[in-house]
Write a structure and sequence with these properties.
10 helices, mainly alpha, Hypothetical protein af1432
Amino acid sequence: MDNKSLENESLQNVKSVLKFLNLVHELKYSVRRGWERRGVEGAETISGHMYAMAMMTFLLPNNSNLDRLKCLQLTVIHDLAECIVGDITPHDGIPEEEKHRREDEAMKDICELVGGEQGQLMQELYKEYETKATPEAKFVKDLDRFDFIFTAFDLEKKRNKPREFQDFFDHMEGQFEHPLIQELVKGLNEERNQYGTNSK
């Protein structure tokens, strides 16, 4: 391959990567629609949700059986398809199978923009999370659920409306598997119960 061909290939790769980065950038402004439906103004963004999950991976101790880096990578991949398909909620009336089809197609397009071994890694991480094929993927799903109820309680305090999102807590009850997250859920519920009592 001559130098001109190498330059053209490099330019094409740069254009593709910039397109990928533009898509990712949209997640900074894309609001999680479930909160919007509940009348929450200034609700969290998709990227804010993923960032919170990513920070929680640092809570894993050094002697954990889980791969902390893998968990971190999974948190920033798990909702990436939403930069194309948007935040599809159960209220949208889209069958679960169709939702997954759209997200799978979006991830394929995203990973093709990145290309090479990097794009392949992103695709593998996405599939790992979707199939819950590893302990790390299951842990990250716990983080996803925990951030949901953590945010719910945070909003209850900010809006001064104790128990406003009780239905979210009811829906998530008993769905946490990892001992670390179970302890966090227990502590959060205790704090929330105390807040509800003091607010009466």
